[in-house]
Amino acid sequence: MRVPPLCFVSMPPKDVMLIRELPYADPGVPDARSGRHFLLWLGRMQWAGQAKSLAWGLLHMGGIAAVPLVMGMAIQAVVTGSGARLAVAGGLLALVGVASTVGDTMLHRTAVSNWITAAARVQQLLARRTAELGATLTQRVAAGEVVAVSTGDIEKIGWCVESVSRFSAGLLVALGVGIGLVIYEPQLGLLVAAGLLVLLLTILPLLPRATRRADVQREEAGRATELAADTVAGLRVLRGIGGEELFLERYRRASQRVRRAAVRTARMWAAIEAVQVALPGLLLLGVVWHGTRLALDGRIAVGELVTVYGAVTFLLVPLRMFQEFAMAYSFSRPSAARAARVLALRRTEEAHPTRPSGGPPDGDALRTRDDAWSEDQDQEDIVEPNADLFDPETGLCVTAGGLTAVVCGDPDVAGRLAARLGGHVPEPASEAESEPGGDPYDAEAGSEDGSAGDSKDGSAGAAVRDADEGKAPHPVLRQPSVRLGDTPLDELPLDTARGTVLVQDKDPVLLSGTLRELLDVPRSGRVSAREALEAARCGDVLEALVRSSPESGGDPMAASITERGRSLSGGQRQRLALARSLVTDPRVLVLDDPTSAVDAHTEARIAESLRRIRTGRTTVVFCSSPLMLDRADEVRLISEGKAVASGSHQELLRDNQAYRRIVTRETHDGSTEEAEAAAEAEGTVTA
Amino acid sequence: MTVRAYVRELVRRHRRAFTVLVVVNTLAVTASMVGPYLLGGLVEDLAAGQRDLPLGWTVTVFAFALVVQTYFVRQVRIRGAVLGEHMLADLREDFLVRSVQLPPGILERAGTGDLLSRITTDIDRLADAMREAVPQLAIGVVWVGLLLGALTITAPPLALAALIALPVLMVGCRWYFRRAPGAYRAEAAGYAAVAAALAETVDAGRTVESHRLGARRVALSDRRVGEWTAWERYTLWLRTILFPTVNLSNVLILGGVLVLGGVFVLQGWITVGQLTTGALLAQMLFEPVGLILRWYDELQVAQVSLARLVGVREIEPEDGEDHVAPDGRDMRADTVRFGYHESVDVLHGVSLAVPSGTRIALVGPSGAGKSTLGRLLAGIYAPRSGDITLGGAELTRMPAERVRSHVTLVNQEHHVFVGSLRDNLLLARTDADDHELWSALRAVGGEGWARGLSDGLDSEVGSGGQAVTPAQAQQVALARLVLADPHTLVLDEATSLLDPRAARHLERSLAQVLEGRTVIAIAHRLHTAHDADVIAVVEEGRISELGSHEALVREGGPYAALWRSWHG
Fold it and tell me: What ipTM was assigned to the predicted interfaces of this complex?
């Protein structure tokens, strides 16, 4: 099957489609106080679309509702033997048919447009929210929550948004038909109205039960998918060592549980469907019985009996719509609540109450995104050049323009210190503050205050003002901020701080895309991609990339990297991440164990080129490999949370027992690994 | 086509369920036609001016038909679900069975990412199709057939009148179905791409913040939203053609029956009762026609997913030759050449002898071919020329299950499976008892934390279960090795993802585990090399230096220089 080219897409009929505006330049500021508020806000944002949808829906439903009338007319014409009236009925049917066809098509178009615009809007809001929260997101809410909103919840919210206008149209027309019936023949009309009420009351209580079962089924299905995905993810382990049958058996059990849950759900739906057959059937039975007697009495014509029969059948259509809407609403409520919860998150900077909110925008700031997102504002102006980096907490001082290696015995301590050096929010010790969106409007009000002064001196000025207003500092005791020269890092606008000091953590994530896209990060422009790749010794990585993506046509920059760079080895991933940090060329670069998975040969070469490419810039490397340490200008030893010694690698190796122990990996029980190994090797060498 | 063959096989497997579904469906539809039939009779009698109607009898029959219809409608739904769910379960289980039979070489080369997307996305997408489309299509086809049949029985001219809509329907649907599957596929892919971009931003939160990538991520998301909505717009346009076609066909069917039928009555060819019944039956046709179109659509989309799943079945498991078995434990590579592509060799005539019980370290710069050589020695790839033998038997001619009972490759991938700790260990030897499991954990220094878990061996670990550190995951992997007990191991940077301290600890426990075994270690830390009996320096696909640590240091080559730099 040929996939149609994208150019087809620009050819749909020329009506005013909401979808044309997508993606929105500005998705707006959501009312995220609660799920209900959020749904209402979404509805408000597309009220015109909803109104159109409702209007077309009325036309469509009206058309369908008129069919029994025409049918009755035709039968009556035949009964009375009137060819002319039969022709009129035929003409009317054509008219009604065209009306309902146009109505149906346009209803579908407008309702689906509402779906799409709502979904697109929420996706765009989510993207902005996550980009703003950055590293703090996962400290506030589980990553799965956000992904769940984007993959599952949006569809449910969209479904609700889509079905509301259709249901409203159905309801209005059904009321019209019902009233018409009552006026036309009160006894029959009341019978029908009562019957429908009973039907509604019977089915409504069944719906929550069905949806509950559907939830159980979805949960089971999710678990089975997880098991399967997990088994496949570990397939190389399984194939390498065995146990396939064990895992297959496990999966089969899960799969059968899904099947049983699904059949259970289907039983509930089957019951609902049976009710939908039985009760309307009884109603029809009553109508036929009563209607026939009326016809016998001559109170209604034969054709009218057919009309009433048809009208009852018609009324089942809005009933289904009601059922659909009830389900869509009950499904979307928790989804909307979760979406609201995620969208209400703010970057509150508990650790840095003095931090100006000049970072990535929230809500209002988006409209002025050019200011807020500016990448090339010159950081050099803000902080004086040649400023040493000083951490008052540990007493660690990093000389400007040099390559400083920091040795910590404990890798966790190293990770925390590296984050501190970049002014990153520390990982929270507890989840106590995790209730999100406690008062999102407070945060917004704050940024609005600040934006008053925005025009004068850019985001940094607004920031200082905000700080000057002296919002009460967080009662929790804070560690003093790392200083760059005389400037506390915490007092710089977020974007400036991040642009000045780049921290590459232990587990840098490679974002998927081509290599060119990977290296397309905000940067100084002084280091080219080629130089950075060379310095990080990525030659073999480039070969591997080209090999695995034939579409690149031999150009490694066009080769694609899979999510998290999973197709590459740990060492290859590390080197690409290093290249990305090098191409950024920040004033201060903090690297946390950047070569832990790289082989000794390559590590030695990287250490050499790191010195060369970072000449004149400040570089801090946390590591314990002699190959790297030996090439640093200065080495600092951190012990018990304090900087205790500094000097060159050779000096420290000679003079400092603790340093020697960490770097050469002597064990604590006195004997060295080397001695053990040597003894072992002497006894067993056979080659 | 394999997809067709597979579907045929599925249907054959579930023939009984299919038959039952068709039968209950037939009964349900037949019962549903009683109403229009009776009404037609009443109308005819009323029109004829008859006063003495068998109303009681009519109502009784109607009520009876209603009971039958209610019962069988419920049955149709249940039977349909049972059938659909059985087929779906078969499908996903079949897929996993095939996946775990894939040859290790293919897994190494292709990675598991693609398989992963097949088992998550494609199975989900197929679920709806299997669960609903197949049964519903069966129901719809039977339904339409029965209605047309009933129409014909009621009054043959009316059936002809209903058929005037057929050409319109055919032309419209043909147009639509030629374009729809590709478009829906692209639309689904576009939507998945939107979600994927967001998931990555969330996952890479730290990196995004550090590198100030926020604006780019937002722009990427917006672009993906734009691409996805473009496809949505295209499919909406397709339906803008389909919907009127179907609607107009419905009007044509009803109009044809009503107007032409009316003329027939006026001409006296059929009765007014027949006309009423016919018109009501014609109106009943709308639903199954819609049903068929709706699910045919879904089935077309699902076919793509099915093809991707069935595609896995086409990769034949490599059976190996049963009679090839090693005699002894000496490993030998003889002028081995190998490349991932026809033209480019990664290894250029490597020869290496690894006597039983030797510990050999492969060192060298990245990309030199160490890992490739390791994989060849573990029997995962077959050399392009030259031989790799274990005890005189060629590794690649042995069944994969036999190879792994002798040689095991341990790489950086320390997957902890979702499930109990017990299951995670049992996979290496399914008949091991708890005592053996504990002693395996003890041997790798992992007993302490395992005892500390809330439910011991029954504790749920892996994603979603109790957190396991990378070092503990590594211990689990090593405990599996202890249980599997192969005599030769290929360690490919097995500890490289751990922090140096944990790595050192682990290597110490590993040393005890490896006692007396043949070990081929691909090392990136020099102390690992130092501990080995023999060091082979691999450079540019060749072994450039070979000998003990002392010998190599004495020779003063590249290895010696590196060692001095490292050791100070």
Answer: 0.84
